[in-house]
Amino acid sequence: MLTPTIGENAGKIWSLLETNGGLSPSAIGKRLNLKSADVDRAVGWLAREDKVHFEPAGKTGIKITLK
Questions:
Q1: Rounded to an integer, what is the distance from CA 33 to the centroid of its chain?
Q2: E-strand spans in 1-67?
Q3: Residue 1 placed within a domain
Q4: CA distances from 35 to 8, 25, 67 (A)
Q5: Which DSSP symbol is given to 58?
Q6: How high is the pLDDT of residue 6?
Q7: Rounded percentage of the chain residues whose pLDDT exceeds 90
Q8: For residue 26, is pLDDT > 90?
Q9: CATH of the domain at 17
C-alpha cells in the first residue's frame, strides 16, 4: 500500500477544517489518523499556499483555521 502524499493529506486537512472549523494539530491528527509529522508537513503545504491561519489557543497551543 502506498503512503498518501503530502498534497493528499493537505486536501484531507483542508476538507476537515472546512467542515469543522478551527482545530489543533493534534485534533487533526486524531480525526484523520495521521502522524504528527504528516500533519505538520501537510499544514506547512497549506500555509505555503496561504490557505490557513494560525490562532493562539490556550496558553501554549494553536488552532488552525482556513483563510
A1: 12
A2: 52-57, 61-66
A3: no
A4: 14, 10, 24
A5: T
A6: 94
A7: 88
A8: yes
A9: 1.10.10.10
Predicted TM-score (pTM) of the model is: 0.90
With beta carbons less than 8 A apart as the criterion, state whether 22 and 55 touch. yes
Q: What is the pLDDT of residue 2?
A: 56
Task: Say if CB 14 and CB 54 are below 8 A apart.
Answer: no
Count the domains in the chain: 1
Residues facing 54 on adjacent strands: 64
Task: Report d(CA 28, CA 25) in Å as an integer.
Answer: 5
Residue pLDDT, tens place only, 33-56:
999 999 999 999 999 999 999 999
Q: Which range marks the domain in which residue 62 is found?
A: 6-66
Tell whether 58 is covered by a domain. yes
Question: Which triple of cell numbers denotes residue 34?
Answer: 495521521
